[in-house]
Structures are given as C-alpha cells and as structure tokens.
UniProtKB/TrEMBL annotation:
Keywords: ATP-binding, Cytoplasm, Kinase, Nucleotide-binding, Nucleus, Ribosome biogenesis, rRNA processing, Transferase. It is an enzyme of class 2 (transferase). One of its GO terms (cellular component) is nucleus. This is Adenylate kinase isoenzyme 6 homolog.
Length: 173
C-alpha cells in the first residue's frame, strides 16, 4: 500500500518544542498529531512508573502495535523524545529539534524537573543524543535538525515543514 500523505517524526530532548511544533504543523497541514507520551498514558502502553526519572516506562512493542495501522495509512506527525524503536518504514521525514542549553535549562526548570532529570536532559542535548539516534535509525537524507530556541525559530520551522509537506510525493518503492 502506498501512502498518499506523509508521516513525520518530530523528536528531540524534552523541552525542545516538539509538541508545540507538532500541534502547529498538524493544524497547518491537516495531518494527525500523535503525542506518544499522551498515547502511552491513555492506552496504558507502559510497564509502570519510574520514580527516579519521574515518568512512565514505555513499552515500545505495545506502542508500535498500537500505531501500526495508523502509520500505514499515513498523514501522521508523531511527537516523541525517542526514535530508535519506531520502524524505519513508517517515516518520510525525521525532524530533530535542538535547543541551546541555557534556553533548555530555563524551560525544564520552569517545568519543575528534578536536578537529576534536568542534568540528564541537558547532557542529552549537549551530546546531541537524539540527533545521533535518528541518524543511526533512519536514512540520512530524511533526518533534519532544526533549531528551536525561540518563537521565531518555531515559526521558521513551521514554514519549512509546511512547505515540505506540500511538496511531498509518495515513494514508488
């Protein structure tokens, strides 16, 4: 089955603007926004709570099973801070949002992140963990890093991504 609408993964360290960007892009393109964190909570696609990291322990197999049919249909923007467990065939574009560490620190502090969770996420951004994960998991030509420090960056990214969706053509492979 050839998809008639693209699937986009928007990933990055928590606090880089994934949900804001994904929501705005869904509105602009009429694609479906899937916030994986919300899906995990709503459908109990986890293996319990991690007190140290203050989050659910996602069950990647359950998430992929839940999304399989929807992703095959196409027309989705998947919003999640990880990317290496999703099947490569699902995505036509993988966007890695990146934020300056001082901006990210302020955003995560405002969210009330604990010191260990804050440090963990700042280190993740410093070492570009999500960009490397995306590059290792998907073809290089579909992975694009985008700066996401400000409202202006989000606006520019939205224009770039909306234009990409409008130009997208299904692959014949």
């Amino acid at each position: 089955m050839v998809r008639t609408r693209p699937n986009i993964l928007v990933t990055g360290t928590p606090g880089t603007g994934k949900t804001t960007t994904s929501s705005a892009l869904a509105e602009a393109t009429q694609l479906r926004h899937i916030n994986v964190g919300d899906l995990v909570k709503a459908k109990n696609l986890h293996d319990g709570w991690d007190d140290e990291l203050d989050c659910y322990v996602i069950n990647e197999d359950l998430v992929c099973d839940e999304l399989e049919d929807t992703m095959e249909e196409g027309g989705n923007i998947v919003d999640y801070h990880g990317c290496d467990f999703f099947p490569e065939r699902w995505f036509d574009l993988v966007v890695v949002l990146q934020t300056d560490n001082t901006v990210l620190y302020d955003r995560l502090t405002r969210r009330g992140y604990s010191n260990s969770k804050l440090s963990n996420n700042i280190e993740c951004e410093i070492f570009q963990t999500l960009l490397e994960e995306a590059k290792e998991s998907y073809p290089q030509d579909i992975v694009i890093p985008l700066k996401s420090d400000s409202i202006q960056d989000i606006s520019t990214n939205l224009t770039t991504l909306t234009d990409w969706v409008r130009r997208w053509q299904p692959s014949s492979t």
